[in-house]
Design a protein that fits this description.
alpha+beta, five-stranded antiparallel β-sheet, 5 helices, 7 strands
Length: 195
Amino acid sequence: MSRAYDEPLGVTPDGAAWLASAGTYPRSTLALWEERPQAPVVLPCGSVFDIVSAPAMFGRLMLDRLWGDGPGSGPVAAFRARTLLFAAPGTAQRLPSLLEWEEWSADGRRDGRAGSVPPLLCHGTGDAVTVPALSPAGSGSATRWMVAPDTRHPWLPGPEILLWAAVRAARAAVRISIFPPADQDAKVYDVSRRR
């Protein structure tokens, strides 16, 4: 399944209600958005959603893994040079320990499987994040929805799914090369014995 992450997306009224439910005063947040749909808002994490914030390019690789090989994603936003993946509550507490466990082999040495996963910032209970405006500001905007909320109860990935996406994104990033892949049908001759 292919997603067009560069197209500006707007949040549906049900998606706005879901986002607003994270705040202490959901009706006030909805009234603000009704008056100023272009206004970003700061919302608390931990009760309705957690946020996993990745560097922009790595977050995009994670998103590609989630949609290309996995179950998809919940809402996703681009905020400055970060990709904000909305996750199930509790993910911010669990994901860092899963990533740490994945990086080490049983004998305590780095095994390299997740060594190229950049530091992911996990925001949960007690944290707050700025979410993009409800209406799209344009595809070039530094703050926008990549996957906009469109329902009152969106599916949100948990820590295991985001671990899976991060590890696979790291492996995919390592395989990126400026050289084309070798032609598997090419004939190879040993010229080392040539006179």
